[in-house]
Amino acid sequence: MATKTKKKYRSKKAVERGTNIAIYIILVIISVVWLFPYLFLILQSLRGEPGATTNYFFPKQWTFGNYIRLFQNKGIKMANDGSTFVATTGQYNFLRWYGNTLLIAIVVTVVQTVIVVATSYALSRLRFRMRKPLMNLMLILGMFPGIMSMTALYFLLELIGLTQKMSILGLILVYVGSSCMGYYVCKGFFDTIPRSLDEAARIDGANRQTVFFKVILPLSKPIIIYTILTAFLGPWGDYMFASLLTMGQPDYWNVAVGLRDMIQRESLANWQDGFQRFCAAAVIVSLPITILFFILQRYYVEGVTGGSVKG
After folding, report:
1. Structural domains of the chain sorted by starting position, each given as residue range(s) with its CATH number in brackets
2. How far apart are CA 120 and CA 309, in angstroms?
3. Which of 44, 239, 264, 299 is the residue whose CA sits 20 to 30 A from 113?
């Protein structure tokens, strides 16, 4: 009897070990496929050979010149006699695009985080008339894609002069305008914090502001980090609305619009290092997001899982 039990146990362990090995192999394959485009992007940004396409994977000439010329607003252009020379691109001011995007993202992150946290706390802790219908209304409106309102918003912003050279302010207002409709994850996290803590603080003489700042916020670091990350990601990678508001004004583009213009057919035809500069710019643009996720990954996961417990 003992022998049969041991064989059954060993058989079960062998099946479990084989299953784990198969799962790990599948995950490794998926990781390689997922990481391949990023590896290709980095290698192309370090390629010194001209041209947008090659029939080989690793560069034959390695250089950081693509990054340097990107910030110097220069590129390698084809001369009439067939030779190449380093020239000023004029239109491509990547440093300014980066600054525009960073300014918009920081302002939107701060304002949107304050609005979302305040709205979520009010809906979680306060009880008032029309509370549930208001929550349902915001939830339903949030399901509609923002692109549906793009045309109407453009004409409205154009009417009050917040397009073209004032597009940065216009984009900030658009990104911040519907912030409160993203309350559900943050409210779900606040719902997991026991209300007995609020009641104990109120018995000790604390008002609602003191409860919020002294009791709730110190316990809500994960969801605040999650809100900050999601608020930062929106304006950092937006292309559709930013391209519409800044049409014809390269100095007010964000990085998404600028990168899209970098790989236009005319740019690739006139500038031999156009594709390499595009790859270098894409690597630089991805760095802030990558660094933030690596540093704040633990809080991000806690915020998502904690906010999904109940709503």
Report:
1. 2-88 (no CATH), 95-307 (1.10.3720.10)
2. 15
3. 239
Residue 234 in tokens: 């929106």
Residues paired with 88 in a beta bridge: 74
Closest CA to 232 of 118, 117, 146, 111: 111
Alpha carbon of 120 to those of 43, 223, 253: distances in Å?
44, 11, 33
Q: Which helix (H) or strand (E) holds 87?
A: strand 84-88
